[in-house]
Write a structure and sequence with these properties.
By secondary structure, this protein is an all-alpha fold. The protein has one domain. The chain has 6 helices and 2 strands. The chain has a two-stranded antiparallel ribbon. The protein starts with a helix and ends in a 5-residue tail after the last strand.
């Protein structure tokens, strides 16, 4: 099955096209989702893109044969990475990595959060506009 997965690598353009075709339904599902806090449901907010790109990724992971546990864990890692990064880029990267390897290197949780913050600090020198040396 892994050899079969390698044939088609996905692109950001493909993800965005799928989202555009399903956006109304995806946004309605977001608004109705009881586990998503109201402040993340703001129309036009950044979380809409995280949600929509994650829905595309989850759909494609399932088509690839991922288990629900794998979809769940990869989805959480995608959400964490999307906090500081492009959600479409991470959705595509994780999907392609899963198709190539049968898993992804990142695992959601505190370790990934620390890794993301460290990478962000190395590139930007701050976290969310707050200089690190001001608070350490």
């Amino acid at each position: 099955m892994l050899a079969e997965r390698k044939h088609t690598m996905h692109t950001i353009e493909e993800a965005k096209k799928w989202v555009d075709e399903h956006r109304d339904e995806l946004i309605q599902n977001l608004r109705e989702h009881s586990e998503v806090p109201d402040y993340l449901k703001a129309p036009g907010g950044r979380f809409e893109e995280v949600w929509c790109s994650g829905c595309w990724m989850n759909e494609k992971l399932r088509e690839t044969g991922a288990t629900e546990d794998e979809v769940h864990n990869i989805g959480f890692a995608h959400g964490q990475r999307s906090f500081f990064g492009n959600p479409y880029r991470w959705a595509v990267a994780y999907l392609n990595e899963f198709k190539q390897r049968g898993n992804i290197a990142d695992h959601p949780g505190a370790e990934l959060a620390d890794k993301i913050n460290s990478e962000h600090i190395q590139v930007n020198g701050d976290v969310m506009g707050i200089a690190v040396e001001d608070h350490c």
